[in-house]
Structure formats: C-alpha cells, structure tokens
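Field reference: sequence -> structure
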Amino acid sequence: MTSAEGEHEGPPNKRRKLDADVNGAGCTPSSTSEEAIADEATATSLQRPISPPPLRSRQRTPHTSHLHDAHVTEPSPADEAVSTSCRATVEEEPDHKKSKVVRSPVQLSRIRDLAPHQNEDSVGLRDILGDPMIKECWNFNYLFDVDFVMSHFDTDVRDIVQVKIIHGFWKNVDERRIAMLEAAERYPNVQTISAYLPDPFGTHHTKMLILFQHDDFAQIVIHTANMIERDWTNMTQAVWKSPLLPLQMSPTPSPTDVTLPIGTGGRFMKDLLFYLNAYGRRLHGLTEQLVNYDPSAIRAAFLGSAPSRQKPAAARPSIQTSFGWLGLKQILSTTPVQPTSSTPNIVAQVSSIATLGATPTWLNHFHSVLNRTASSNRTFFAPAPKNPSPSLNIIFPTAPEIRTSLDGYASGASIHTKTQSPVQQKQLEYLRPLLCHWKHQDSHLSAVTPEQRREAHRGPAAPHIKTYVRFADEGRTGIDWAMVTSANLSKQAWGEVENKKGEVWVQSYEAGVVVWPGLFSDEDGDEGAVMVPVFGQDRPLVGDVGEEKGKGKGKGKGKTVVGFRMPYDLPLSPYGEDEVPWCATMPDNEEDWMGRVWNGY
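Structure field:
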C-alpha cells in the first residue's frame, strides 16, 4: 500500500472547538469550502497566533480522459439555485409557522475526482484527524495503511499523538498483518491491538474512531471506510460524527441495570461500552477514559456486533441492546413510523453480499427484523393503525458500473458477492427481483421525468458505503429511520437465525448508528419531526419540507425537518432480467475505461 497523500486537503483551522460549533443535528459542522479544496496549505506551529482560514488554493488537476471528464459536470443553473436557497431561504416559510431545519446527521466522504459542486458538505479523513488538539486516537478497522493514516494528523502533533490500531489479523503469516506491523514500528507513538476472533470466518470489520483532545473533549466517529487510500479518494463512504463530548468534572457511574431510553446519549454510551467490553482487557485503557465523558448531546442509537452467542430469551432490551439482528430488532421496536396507506420501502445498500443460502430463509427473517416498528401508539381501546408491509430492495453494482467508475476495475476489489456455485446461483434467483443498480441507468431515465429525478452526485464513485433506510412511502419522499453501519448482508455480521438451542451466533465485529426523526424533535413548541432524503447537500431545501412530502398533520409546517444525505439517486433502477451483480472472483475480459481487464481472484 502506498503512503502517498490521497485527498490533498488543507489542514483544518487551528481554533478551539466551542459548544457553539455544534449544529442542531448534534454533529460538528462540516469544513469550509476553502478547507475542502485546499491541497497545498501547510501546517503552522501551535505556538503561533490563531490566524483566519487559508485562502482558496488551486484545485486538483483532473485526469484528461474523456471518460473521467464525463464524471465531473459543470453546475447547472438549478444546482446553483439549490446551493443558494439551501442557505438563504430554507427556513423562510410562507406560512406563519416555521420549520426548524436540521442538517443530515450523516455526511458523505469527499470524492477526489469529482467537481466541487458535487462534493458539497462532504468530509475527508483530514477533516477528522487533522485537528491539532487530538492527543489520543483509537482506530478500529479491517484494513490499515499506517503511513496513510499518520499522514492525516496535523504535522505539529503527528509524532506525539497516541495512536491505537485495533485490528483482526491473527495469522502470523498474513501479509497484511506483517505489512501493518512493520509500518507501525516506524512510529513510536503507534500501538497495535489484536481483537480476539474465535471463529475462522469472522472478521474485525468495525470502522470507528474514538478521539480524545487536549481541551478535555472526546468524539466518536463511525464510518464505512477502510484506513487505506483507495477508500478515502474515489469510493463513496459515509461518516457519522458525534458532537464533542465534554469531560465530566465529577462523573457519576450509572448502575448496570438502569433503564435508559434507546436513542438517548446515555443509552448510546452504555451500548458502546458494552460493545468495547467484548474485546476484554485489551481496551481497558479506552473504556476507563470514555466513561468520564458526557454523552448527553448524542442523538442516535449505537448498534454493534461482536463474536458471541446471543440468547433472545435472556435479552433485556430495556437495559442493554444486544448484538447483530437481535439488537437491531430491539432498536426498531422502539422506533415510531408515520401512519400511511402507501407501501413503505426498505432499501439495503451494501458493498458485499455473502452466501445466505439456497433458500431465502435467512433473508426473509432479516426482512422481518427490518419491518419492526414501535407499538407506542397502540392502546387497549385504540390499536395502532396497521401500515402496509414494507417492500425490500437491495442496491448493488453490476460489472458495467464498476468498469465505468472513477477507479475502474480497481474499485471492484472492494465489492464482493459470488455467483458461481449452484447454491449461489439459487441465491441469485431469489435476490434478482430485489436488486437495483448503484448508478442510475440511462435506459431507466426515459421513464423518469426531470422533476422525479433526484441526483446524489455519487454514481461514478463506486460504493463501499453501507446504508439501510426505511422510506415512509412508495415515492420515497420521507424517511422513518436510517442506519449507517460497517455490516453488509451476511450471517457473520448480523448473526444466524436462532438455532434449536435458542442462540443467535454472531461471528464478526461491526459498528453502526441508527437515526430517526423523533430524536431531533424539540420537546416544547414544535409539532414533531420528519426526516427527508436530501441530495447534493446536507441541509433540506424549501421543496423538501412541503405538505407533498407526507400526509401527517401539518407536515413540514412548524415541525423539525431533518435531512438524511442520500448516497444514491432516486428513483431506483431495478436490474433487468439478464443482469447480474458484480462478482470479483470472476474474470472479465471487457476493458474498463482505463483499458484494463479484470483477472478475478
């Protein structure tokens, strides 16, 4: 792996982050446009006076290929109008009631070879690690390029920030383990920690950063990218960042059996610590620090997986969230949804589909978990209205989408499913009706009007992101809940179906967050909250908050309107009858846009 700088981002401003920097979504604000495109700015000493943000420096020179040029589009007048309106008029409603607008709690990663207007509100690794106030970094992941990681810390603190790398390479002969350990030896401030993996097919797949700062703040970052250059340059990823969590002067340990509502900061921290404790004593130095920080500003539910055999009969969901699909079921069972006569749609967008079986037993069970909702509206005299059962779609790219992506076949090395064996062929039969393209297809555009098309500007950047979204209606104009996670569609990540012993077998480490609109509703004064998909920026526009977005009382008027940044275009493009998903293990002799063929592996 190369250690070359992959993002060409300028260093962040060396200003202390204050409470006023936290936005309404409970997340720190995105970097300024100057920071987003700067590629030659250099760090200044911590001892020097604080200076204003650096001036805009020249943009990265794009490739000259005509295929690449097609990916970088000029902003249209509509794009420019969107950029202006989302800042100036989104909160100005014609009615007397005004909507509170909340930026998406999830951001997309910056794509190196796309135009600035296609990278609005995006985030890069330097935005996360480049703060000179960071004193300690716990870095959980599957793949590591240590030199690449270290290059993203501020130059003034790079040699002193304490970096802990938590990985899952347990075979001494593993070349990736050897390369990682050799690179770590070049940095006295880097320590590697191996996670215990009792099952040969399990992996340490979690993608998370826990940061401690000199100014007594901590931050939790959950994302979808490996710590390698390719993942942070031209592949679509997602990032969730907690607010800055202040150190408590006199922390009060909470009893282990106390009930904390799912979605609150206290419950998030409790579930996160439960996950970290699955590593055993290896992470004692982390947990004994983290427990001292105040998580109350967090608005999300933490969902982890760790090697274990969960017992549903022994679960105590009011006290502790379980791992895998059982934990997801517990979270969604507390999540309210909007009553509707329209059919909701659950979209699972992943970068890997494992072998699930010749029959859809596991997938049907997982679909039933995704269908769970809160029954808080149900009473003895007035049962909650029964919504139509949600449909399910799965977004996964095909070989042509990989060939024409920004990195061509190279991006296909990070996207996995298998279709060769008889079992895998049977699996493809029941998956095919659910499968949709990652990139909007030209053949599908003829059936879509310009008004219906909503563009995420990520089609050319192959997906390593993993999202699960429940859309409230067939038109996908509202969102009941959304999840960003490291977990793909696999039994190892989510757990097997409960066996005869009453156990759910989970083999891998995973981490994710679930968000829903009610988490962002003010307790006094507003009429509730709605979540809407947003495209090209993190903040909802005026058109996103109108009554046409749903049928709830006063929809979008006097409510809290939360955006969720979409990584894919809508409406979806279903697979054709003869189309199959990309399979990295199969050779492909058709050249990608750079003239390369794929030999498989």
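Note: Residues 1-96, 546-556 have pLDDT under 50 and may be disordered.
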